[in-house]
Design goal:
Layout (H helix, E strand, L loop, with lengths): L17 E5 L5 H14 L3 E7 L2 E13 L4 E4 L2 E4 L1 E2 L2 H14 L5 E7 L6 E4 L12 E7 L2 E7 L5 E6 L3 E6 L2 H4 E5 L9 E7 L3 H4 L2
Parallel strand pairs: 3-6
Antiparallel strand pairs: 1-12, 2-3, 3-7, 4-5, 7-14, 8-13, 9-12, 9-14, 10-11, 10-13
Length: 205
């Protein structure tokens, strides 16, 4: 597992990318308030994928928000961005201050318990700016999060805490995979918000 300095910020990757972790970008009270609001008010839909021609509907739920009605395609399915809510805009501002990056979109994920996770992948779709910063805000149940180097197969893991922020930047998506492993020990829900830099000219309406 990764180690941390006193500020709760750590450059987790030894090479070929950069990942920093911020333990408390939100207070426990703020994190709980936002978690409850997001759980009840976000327009959640079951995630879908087309794999080897088979249409799969996952238990995990997702939502896609942005500055415009961007069309985001991954796993051979397409989602149309909804307009920002005040709460999402407030969270975006908080995240931008830590990441020192302006974001124009956010993909939200809802994992109901540890039976739901996501397998190894990179956020390297053509609709996302190459080697751009992606900031992931975690709320709810603490979950293990892992990185694996595409060539050396080295793995690095950490636990994402309630109210924490993980910032992936530089060549991380080019050289590393990441995953959220399943765990039967996790019984509560987790929401994460991944703020992104979407290329507007690719597929927006």
């Amino acid at each position: 597992m990764a180690s941390f300095n006193e500020d709760g910020i750590s450059n987790l990757l030894h090479n070929d990318g950069s990942v920093n972790y911020y333990r408390n970008v939100l207070t426990h009270y703020e994190a709980k308030r936002y978690f409850d609001w997001l759980l009840q008010n976000i327009v959640w839909e079951n995630d879908e994928a087309v794999i080897f021609g088979k249409h799969i509907i996952a238990k995990r739920k997702v939502a896609w928000y942005g500055d415009s009605d961007y069309l985001y395609t991954y796993s051979n399915t397409t989602k149309k961005a909804l307009p920002w809510t005040k709460e999402l805009s407030d969270l975006r501002q908080i995240v931008e201050q830590s990441a020192r990056t302006k974001f124009n979109s956010c993909l939200l994920n809802l994992y109901h318990n540890g039976n739901e996770g996501i397998s190894w992948h990179s956020d390297d779709e053509k609709s996302l700016k190459e080697n751009s910063t992606i900031a992931s805000l975690s709320l709810g149940a603490e979950r293990k999060f892992s990185f694996k180097h595409k060539l050396s197969k080295e793995t690095i893991s950490l636990v994402l805490e309630h109210g924490s922020l993980l910032i992936m930047k530089d060549a991380t998506q080019t050289n590393w995979l990441h995953s959220l492993p399943k765990s039967k020990k996790i019984t509560g829900p987790r929401i994460n918000l991944t703020f992104r830099v979407y290329l507007e000219h690719i597929t927006s309406l």
